[in-house]
Amino acid sequence: MNLQELQEEFISAISAVYETTEAWNIWNLIVHHIHDNEKKGITIAGGSPQKYLEAIKRRLLQQEPVQYILQEAWFYDCPFYVDKNVLIPRPETEELVHWVIKEHQHRKELKILDIGTGSGCIPCILKRKLPQAAVFSCDISKAAIEVARRNAAACQLAIAFFELDFLNPENWKLLPKVDVIVSNPPYIPGKDRGFMHPNVLDYEPSLALFVPDNDPLLFYKKIAEASGSLLQPNGAVYVETHEELAVASAEVFEQGAFTTVIRQDLQGKNRFVKASN
């Protein structure tokens, strides 16, 4: 079977689960991944493209995300190692990171704290694009911290990681005072589970996705509270939010005497909040 035939058979098979456009995107990711490995002298499993694609196809038909299958996700034009211990980076979060970079790229000295490390995509890109910054990041998950450290090492970036429960105020004293706090915290109310796709619900870590229905602003409240001791004067907090909770999230910071700005994502949804002290 030649490449054209493999492609047609693969797209046809996974189109039973994925829309045609997404099926093509998945195919392109796989081909790109294979070519990248070949450049590094890495031969795909078994050396047989047909067997390799067949194995991937079986997992895709179970709605396992292709990023977990390849153990690679692209973020801000950089490849990151990912596994089921961390969320797959989203395009919206690139917009959050870009906002921080754009507003602080000309500063000579800068300290940044990322809350909720995950794969490490946020702190890694911030350190890469703002090399003058000292970057810190914390997460409750030991497994996530290990993934983030792996990505930072692969990119040769010096980032300080802290394994701690940020929701416990006792742990805030372990963190440094900073000029910028950035976070893409869990923000999906549990009641939204019924509207979500199996590829998210069945594979991505619930701890990084969901918040209690009775306290959906939990993380924003804690970030606002912690900012009182962690944020330097004239500092700023940048957070990603649920589109239906952006205004309420901004109000949480305003109650703490912050000035806020709500920004929409490229889909026109209220997605980000900046809070300045």
UniProtKB/TrEMBL annotation:
It catalyses: L-glutaminyl-[peptide chain release factor] + S-adenosyl-L-methionine = N(5)-methyl-L-glutaminyl-[peptide chain release factor] + S-adenosyl-L-homocysteine + H(+). Residues 106-192 form the Methyltransferase small domain. It comes from the Bacteria. Its EC number is 2.1.1.297. GO terms for molecular function: nucleic acid binding; peptide chain release factor N(5)-glutamine methyltransferase activity. The keyword Transferase applies. InterPro entries: DNA_methylase_N6_adenine_CS (IPR002052), HemK-like (IPR004556), N5-glutamine_MTase (IPR050320), RF_methyltr_PrmC (IPR019874), SAM-dependent_MTases_sf (IPR029063), Small_mtfrase_dom (IPR007848). GO terms for biological process: methylation. It is an enzyme of class 2 (transferase). Keywords: Methyltransferase, S-adenosyl-L-methionine, Transferase. SUPFAM superfamilies: S-adenosyl-L-methionine-dependent methyltransferases. Signal peptide: none annotated. It holds the Pfam family MTS. NCBIfam families: hemK_fam, RF_mod_PrmC. PANTHER family: HEMK METHYLTRANSFERASE, MTRF1L RELEASE FACTOR GLUTAMINE METHYLTRANSFERASE. This is peptide chain release factor N(5)-glutamine methyltransferase. It comes from Niabella ginsenosidivorans. The lineage of its organism: Bacteria, Pseudomonadati, Bacteroidota, Chitinophagia, Chitinophagales.
